[in-house]
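Milestone 3.1: sequence recovery, worked example.
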């Protein structure tokens, strides 16, 4: 199958899972289709190349110091990966789709009309995830990016090639880690891409542990922002500091409020929204905060994304014995309203999929009973 998508692909800005499944059906794609291997390229601080952030930095498809990006993009492994999503015979991403339904993450599908539905790609990647440096201002317990190197892309001459080979053709840029807003390469990238491709959409995932300065606003004014995702894994100051070492929650919340004010100013100047989003990573230490997090994002007018921590195992809900994991999920379920449960549904479904059959059936039944109420 090889085609560009131009018909019957009208999507809302953030399509629901139901809308995405309808889109797949219209295009003859299986229910477990995922766009990511058809669109994205991730460049990590050590030169490792990835495709999917859900798979993490350990899932490597090549290294920019050993292989050209064009070679990696049409490698045998990537062609096999795409073929699995075109046929529905999922092996590489079986665990992630089962646990998190990550193939239905709505943010990825703005590029759907542009992709080639073919194992071998005749065009280059459309989305660049630029994790150029490990530099970060926090040392988070669930992350090792802050221990990675800095400056590799200067040393290998990436910038000189990218200005002509990649930047003019990409549709989206995403910056994740370490902390993009403290890295000089973020602002260099904004200037370089904007000079040749001003229509690019930009996404940032940030710990927000910095001050929103005039310089940052000036750079953001130059670009079209798809979203800014703030990783906040606790609303309790002490627990936040335990999870994000050297961090202070009050700094993050101040930056969040400053971004909300800056967004209002952008809108008055016709620059478009920031689509501020809170990302909450559920772990052994913070699962009980889910209802509070839902209320917080609704009070602040934010979007919410919830993911479950799988690695390191000792920080994950999966590290609990099954009966204890079940009881904790049941506890937070009972403390939540039906609406709060619906907003956090990815957590409950992931826990259910991790449990033995009897506990899974029990949790799903209680989940159904809870969410069927008004």
């Amino acid at each position: 199958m090889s085609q560009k998508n131009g018909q019957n692909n009208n999507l809302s800005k953030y399509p629901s899972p139901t809308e995405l499944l309808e889109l797949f059906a219209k295009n003859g794609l299986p229910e477990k289709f995922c766009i990511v291997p058809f669109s994205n390229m991730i460049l990590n601080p050590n030169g490792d190349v990835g495709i999917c952030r859900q798979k993490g930095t350990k899932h490597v498809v090549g290294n920019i110091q050993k292989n050209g990006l064009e070679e990696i993009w049409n490698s045998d492994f990537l062609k096999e990966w795409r073929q699995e999503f075109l046929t529905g015979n999922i092996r590489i991403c079986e665990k992630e789709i089962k646990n998190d339904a990550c193939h239905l993450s709505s943010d990825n599908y703005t590029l759907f009309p542009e992709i080639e539905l073919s194992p071998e790609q005749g065009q280059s990647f459309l989305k660049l995830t630029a994790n150029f440096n490990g530099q970060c201002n926090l040392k988070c317990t669930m992350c090792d990016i802050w221990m990675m190197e800095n400056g590799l892309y200067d040393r290998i001459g990436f910038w000189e090639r990218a200005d002509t080979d990649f930047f003019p053709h990409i549709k989206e840029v995403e910056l994740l880690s370490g902390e993009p807003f403290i890295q000089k390469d973020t602002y260099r990238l904004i200037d370089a891409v904007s000079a040749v491709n001003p229509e690019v959409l930009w996404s940032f995932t940030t710990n927000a542990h910095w001050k929103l300065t005039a310089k940052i606003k000036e750079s953001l004014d130059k670009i079209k922002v798809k979203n800014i995702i703030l990783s906040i894994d606790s609303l309790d100051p002490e627990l936040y500091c335990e999870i994000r070492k050297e961090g202070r929650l009050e700094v993050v919340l101040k930056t969040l409020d400053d971004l909300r004010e800056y967004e209002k100013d952008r809108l008055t100047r016709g620059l478009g929204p920031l689509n501020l989003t809170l990302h909450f990573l559920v772990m052994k230490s913070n699962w009980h905060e889910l209802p509070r997090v839902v209320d917080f994002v609704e009070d602040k007018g934010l979007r919410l994304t919830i993911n479950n921590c799988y690695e390191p195992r000792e920080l994950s809900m999966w590290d609990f014995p099954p009966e204890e994991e079940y009881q904790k999920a049941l506890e937070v379920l009972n403390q939540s309203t039906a609406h709060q449960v619906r907003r956090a549904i990815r957590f409950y479904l992931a826990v259910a999929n991790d449990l033995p059959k009897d506990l899974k059936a029990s949790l799903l039944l209680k989940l159904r009973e809870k969410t069927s109420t008004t």
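The first strand starts at residue 40 and ends at 43. The mean pLDDT is 93.
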